[in-house]
Amino acid sequence: MCGAPREAGVAPVTSATTAMTGTTLDRTDAGADTGRADTGHGEAGHEGTGPEGTRYVLRTATPDDLGGARAVMLDTVYRDLKSGYVPRWHADIIDPEAAYLRPERCTLLVVEHRGEIVATGAVRDRGPQAPPNPQWVADRFPSGSTAQLCRIYVRPEHRRHGLARQLVRELGEFAVRAGGYTALYLHTDPAVPGAEPFWRSLAREVCDERTLPGGGQGIVHFELPMPVPGAVPGAVPGVVGTPAG
């Protein structure tokens, strides 16, 4: 299952490093579950300085990051989603390299703070499947042309620093650069504190399964606007991004 947490602050993902400074970060909060470029993969690197000098680096994950990323994901599915590890939903957590690092049109981004991975965000190249999702939702977001945002998780002590919002922005930019995607899709569990209002601030509702007969899976499906190629992404207040070399 997919969805996402909190916020973020940076600029477009490029093959260079982007240095970020700032003190007033986006304060919209949220919680949830919700993944390189240049014809496929590329390096992403952004540094941000938040309140009290907190420093964050957002970048494309490497194999060395997978243990830390997996820990963030597992802690979230147990603590926030309260589902625990379910193989049919969470196989990508156990093997994120196969799910996100190897496929050219998928990615996994991480946010590092003082040497620790504190947030994750991913893109997978398949849409929602039916069942368990409604058939018309699966038909609207076919695999191959749908970039699905997944595993946008932020550790509780690092929320409200704009990290999830920036992850979403970077993942959207990745989908444009990867090519072939015509839609950005995600779904979220509204039972996770903050998840639903966060996504409603960024995306358009496609289907709220709570309104279906029997309540469906109780999740909400969303579509995000595809970024315009070459456009400058919206800046987080107080955060300045300067592409390096």
TrEMBL record:
Residues 56-229 form the N-acetyltransferase domain. It comes from the Bacteria. SUPFAM superfamilies: Acyl-CoA N-acyltransferases (Nat). Keywords: Transferase. The keyword Transferase applies. InterPro entries: Acyl_CoA_acyltransferase, GNAT_dom, NAT_camello-type. Residues 1-56 are annotated as: Disordered. Residues 14-25 have a biased composition (Low complexity). Residues 26-46 have a biased composition (Basic and acidic residues). This is N-acetyltransferase domain-containing protein. It comes from Streptomyces badius.
